[in-house]
Automatic annotation (TrEMBL):
Pfam families: Sedlin_N. One of its GO terms (cellular component) is perinuclear region of cytoplasm. PANTHER family: TRAFFICKING PROTEIN PARTICLE COMPLEX SUBUNIT 2 (PTHR12403). It is found in: Cytoplasm, Perinuclear region. The lineage of its organism: Eukaryota, Metazoa, Chordata, Craniata, Vertebrata. Keywords: ER-Golgi transport, Transport. GO terms for biological process: endoplasmic reticulum to Golgi vesicle-mediated transport. It comes from the Eukaryota. Signal peptide: none annotated. Its main location: cytoplasm. This is Trafficking protein particle complex subunit 2-like protein. The keyword Protein biosynthesis does not apply.
Amino acid sequence: MVHTSLDVVDEKISAMGKALVDQRELYLGLLYPTEDYKVYGYVTNSKVKFVMVVDSSNTALRDNEIRSMFRKLHNSYTDVMCNPFYNPGDRIHSRAFDSMVTSMMIQVC
């Protein structure tokens, strides 16, 4: 399911490149809905892709809340990448990043 969603992300990115769409809009929206799950996507300016899988039965989450969660994730990811002691390509070992992701997961559940 996630691999299929990454294909949809690639399609949306290539469609944005052809059309004159506002490049500041990084949220891609709902990518791949199924009976059990909804998959949302987000891509950064440097083409890093974030995918979020949410249970379809969770009707409390709205589109603007998902968008806000992706922005928080992006900001926290940027903070990790800006750390001078982080080597790109290494696994992320950051308590702040882990706690932010954990708090987002608790919020969703």
